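task queued by scheduler; priority normal; single chain, no ligands, no partner chains; default sampling; output format set to structure tokens
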Amino acid sequence: MELQKFLLGIGLAIVIVFCGASVYTHFVKAVPAPADHDTLYQVSTIDALMLGVYEGVQPVGELKNHGDFGIGTFEALDGEMIVLDGVVYQAKADGHIYVAADRQTTPFATVTHFSSDQAVTTDRPMNLSVFSSVMEDRLPTGNMVYAVRMHGTFPLMKVRAIPAQQEPYPTLAEASKNQSIYTYSDATGTIVGFYTPVFFKGVNVAGYHLHFLSDDHTTGGHILDFTVPADTTVEYDITPGFSMALPTSGDFTGVDLSQDLSADLAKIEK
């Protein structure tokens, strides 16, 4: 009931924006929220990325106008993006973290303005697989988008970053074969990411999609596995609005997005 009241209070908005063109499609008109703070803003689709569409279509400086929290990647698939407290970080395959310049571009990213709506405490240590299952069951509903944030010291943190690719771009499955994997013990930092419902399949990663950034900004990347200790606070920002920016030129316009790539994506994510 509390979730229903919350959603009724802020409205539900879905907006698709085509990059490079002033075209907006409003499916449901929303009650305005300050700076769209309850909106998930996304550049392109995960299936396009899966098929090798790595051309940067939006500058980092523009992306920051739509959120202070999020994840993604960079032009040519050059590393993993972590957006935390309004700063965009780039976890590169060399194992180092860099602050991204506003002029850098992204082919795929999701951001929002994070504001915690709900906090859930873990009741036991969990790896990524167990966490995904247990914590999905503890959500108010699996049919909503949530921004997810955790801070703590994690006994195991296994992350990856993919090096920059050369044209003609390979698929993400091929590119990930050359990924750099780093495993850390007792890593202190912040987990940043999203939970998206199953009906987002093809648009985003259904379920949990999480990146990590250490407090000292020396380690991070896309999470392949972790150990979340008991008594860890998991913060959720319920995000009922959705806005997508799609490229109007380049490889995106000719790629075949009719395929079901969910099985391939599951292998890459893990």
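post-processing summary
- The domain at 118-236 is CATH 3.30.1330.80 (60s Ribosomal Protein L30; Chain: A;).
- The helical segments are 2-10, 46-50, 60-63, 128-137, 172-175, 262-269.
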